[in-house]
Write a structure and sequence with these properties.
By secondary structure, this protein is mostly helical. It has a domain at 28-64. Helix content is 71%, strand content 0%. It contains 4 helices and no strands. Helix 1 crosses helix 2. The longest helix is centred in the first third of the chain and has 29 residues, at 2-30. It is flat and about 70 Å long.
Length: 92
C-alpha cells in the first residue's frame, strides 16, 4: 500500500535518473562535440530551408498530416449480450 503513495515521487525520480544516464552514455559514445556540431548543422539547415519545407517538417513533427486526417473509429458497441443479440439481423 505504501508503494501507491510513493509512486508519484519515485517514478519521476527514476525517469530523471534513466534519462541522465542515457545522456551520459550517449555523450561518452559519440562525444559531446560531435553531438553539438550535428545539432548546430540541423539548426542551420532548418533556418536555411524554404518556408514550405519548414512547414512540412513542423507538420510531421507535431503529428499533423496523413495520420491526423484519418476518420475517427466507431464508438458504438453493445454493452450486454442481450443488446448484441437484438442488433443482429438474421433475415438475409
Amino acid at each position: 500500500m505504501i508503494w501507491l503513495l510513493t509512486r508519484p515521487i519515485v517514478w519521476p525520480a527514476k525517469t530523471a535518473a534513466y534519462s541522465a544516464a542515457a545522456g551520459y552514455k550517449t555523450g561518452r559514445l559519440f562525444g559531446y562535440r560531435r553531438l553539438f556540431v550535428f545539432g548546430l548543422g540541423f539548426a542551420v539547415g532548418y533556418l536555411v530551408a524554404k518556408p514550405e519545407l519548414r512547414e512540412q517538417l513542423i507538420e510531421k513533427v507535431t503529428g499533423g498530416g496523413a495520420i491526423a486526417e484519418l476518420p475517427p473509429a466507431p464508438v458504438s458497441s453493445p454493452t450486454s449480450p442481450a443488446a448484441a443479440a437484438e442488433s443482429i439481423d438474421l433475415t438475409e
